[in-house]
Write a structure and sequence with these properties.
By secondary structure, the chain is of the alpha+beta class. The protein has helices spanning 7-54, 57-62, 68-83, 116-119, 159-198, 204-220, 239-244, 258-261, 267-273, 313-352, 356-380, 384-399, 421-441, 496-506; strands spanning 87-92, 97-99, 124-130, 133-143, 149-158, 224-229, 234-237, 277-284, 287-297, 303-312, 403-406, 449-455, 460-467, 510-515, 521-528. Strand 1 (87-92) and strand 2 (97-99) form a beta hairpin. It starts with 6 loop residues before the first helix and ends in an 11-residue tail after the last strand.
Length: 539
């Protein structure tokens, strides 16, 4: 079975291998540079000494003496011992030695074959094999009284001595390299441990799987998701966020500053304070959205960025409308069942009391009222969604012991197909519910009624709902359409009129209200049949 190395071990091996390669490369380069520099320095040193000896008056005059060697040899040896050179050889133009570290070689011919340029009057540094072995030598010409070349000065160091010095330095470099490698291994181990801890001990395969899962999850969420770092640069955004920002699905916004796309964002404030913001409303382009902003905190409790999720308010309202419709249908069925149960109990009691005439009259009266109401709905409000809603509200009002009436002059037959029936149901249903709640909250009034008037005459659809409640206080008139605001007690209030306002705006209409002469409130909604000619502000 193949052995699978853990991430920490892989990192240590990779870092150590790279470190060893780097150290070896640096060591080789340093050794090469050091050898070159050392040879240059020794060659230059030899050349300077050779030029200095060649310029000595005693040396120059010695070439004109009967025994030049007697004068030159002591001087050359004294200088050689002083500079610790391997040899200083002095010869004439023919290459015959006048000075040599080995006296028995004086008078013999110089070897190496590199005297040509010197006899032409040039000083050189050369490598050659002389009588004492391979050497690095500096050579300078000796000029006579007439400026002619009369001799050659050769100062040399054996290459094996140079190599020995280089090896000593190389040994030091190797020790330093080994120490650096040991420190590097320790550092690699520490780095690998920190890396493993920072990625929560996950292996590369696991990280890849998590990335794939995260991407799939983000794309499956029907909310816009945007993440930023501490500097406010976008690090991630899903497809739905691009849609709300009205950008192409293949657009790349990572690396851009969040304020370039959302100038009124508060993500930078969340990064700065580390405080989450939940269910905040804001305008994102043409969309009203509900936003949640949460800081990203690492294991050291430091804020490293922030994530924002946002969803269009229109979708939230659509969900609320669907829930409201389900609730209305359920309430209508419950009310109808409850009301007819009561009627059946009354009829059953009358029959048991043998009051057959009263039972027949009650049945006839209920049938007539219900049939008249249904026939009126079918004739003047033929839309099945709106008609079904009104019948349900009528039954619910009967259960609540309220009077719910539809003005006999109502007519709602001419509804253009371009107008969303769901929005009309939201408006009418919530206005009726709000009116019933207002009437029920007013216990000291004998007359508890809700009257609805609908008309399609003219260029607008008019919806008017009047109740006999207590009305709206003057100080609350500017807040009645705000989400969560309500003049009635209890939880989960302040939703209906906000939904109404939203639906009215979607239909380019407007809504107004004023106190009724009988003490309640009259809400009036006008919706243009021609959607393009409506009120753009919606109220």
């Amino acid at each position: 079975m193949r052995l699978k190395l853990r991430l920490q071990t892989k990192l240590i091996l990779i870092i150590c291998t790279l470190l060893a390669l780097v150290i070896a490369s640096i060591g080789g380069i340093f050794n090469y540079v050091m050898s070159s520099v050392l040879e240059d320095q020794i060659g230059t040193r030899a050349l300077k000494v050779a030029e200095t000896i060649a310029g000595m008056p005693e040396i120059r005059q010695a070439f004109y003496q009967p025994d030049p060697s007697a004068i030159i040899q002591p001087i050359a040896e004294s200088v050689r011992e002083t500079i610790d050179a391997e040899f200083i050889v002095v010869g004439n133009r023919e290459g015959i030695r006048y000075a040599h570290p080995l006296p028995d070689r004086i008078g013999k011919e110089m070897v190496g074959g590199d005297n040509g340029p010197v006899l032409e009057g040039r000083s050189i540094i050369s490598r050659a094999i002389g009588s004492m072995g391979p050497s690095l030598r500096g050579k300078a010409p000796v000029f006579g009284n007439q400026g002619e070349v009369v001799g050659i000065i050769s100062v040399g160091f054996l290459t094996e001595d140079i190599d020995l010095i280089t090896e000593q330095y190389q040994s030091q470099i190797e020790w330093v390299s080994l120490m650096a490698l040991a420190v590097g291994i320790a550092g690699a181990t520490l780095i690998a441990h920190n890396v493993r801890r920072s990625i929560h001990g996950l292996e590369p395969e696991e990280i890849g799987a998590l990335y794939t899962e995260k991407k799939a999850i983000l794309e499956s969420i029907h909310e816009g998701i945007i993440a930023v770092d501490r500097q406010g640069m976008i690090t991630m955004a899903n497809r739905y966020a691009l849609q709300l920002l009205q950008l192409p699905e293949d657009a790349t916004i990572t690396g851009r500053h969040i304020e370039e796309l959302i100038p009124n964002t508060r993500l930078n404030e969340v990064v700065r304070t580390g405080q989450a913001e939940v269910d905040r409303e804001m305008l994102l382009g043409d969309h009203e959205v509900v936003v949640n902003r949460v800081p990203v905190v690492d294991r050291n409790s430091r804020v490293t960025g922030a994530v924002s999720s946002f969803r269009s308010k229109s979708e939230l309202y659509r969900l609320a409308e669907e829930l409201s419709q389900v609730k209305r249908f359920a309430e209508a069925l419950r009310a109808q069942t409850h009301e007819f149960s009561n009627k059946l109990y009354v009829i059953s009691g009358l029959i048991q009391l043998e009051s057959y005439q009263e039972a027949v009259e009650l049945i006839s009266r209920e049938v007539d009222v219900h049939q008249n109401f249904v026939q009126f709905i079918m004739r003047d409000i033929p839309d099945p969604m709106i008609g079904g809603l009104l019948i349900g509200k009528y039954n619910h009002a009967q259960e609540l012991k309220l009077s719910f009436e539809i003005d006999p002059q109502s007519s709602f037959r001419d509804i253009p197909d371009t107008i969303d029936r769901n929005l009309l149901v939201t408006i009418i249903g919530n206005l009726i519910d709000n009116a019933m709640d207002a009437v029920l909250a007013c216990r000291d009034k004998e007359v508890k009624s809700v009257v609805l008037f609908l008309t399609d005459l003219g260029e607008d659809l008019i919806i008017e709902c009047e109740d006999t409640g207590v009305g709206i206080p003057e100080e609350a008139r500017n807040a009645v359409f705000e989400k969560g605001f309500s003049t009635k007690e209890g939880e989960h209030r302040g939703i209906g009129l906000a939904l109404v306002l939203h639906a009215v705006r979607k239909l380019n209409g407007y809504i107004t209200f004023h106190n009724s002469p009988v003490g309640g409130t009259i809400f009036t909604v006008a919706i243009p049949k021609n959607m393009e000619g409506g009120n753009p502000d919606g109220g």
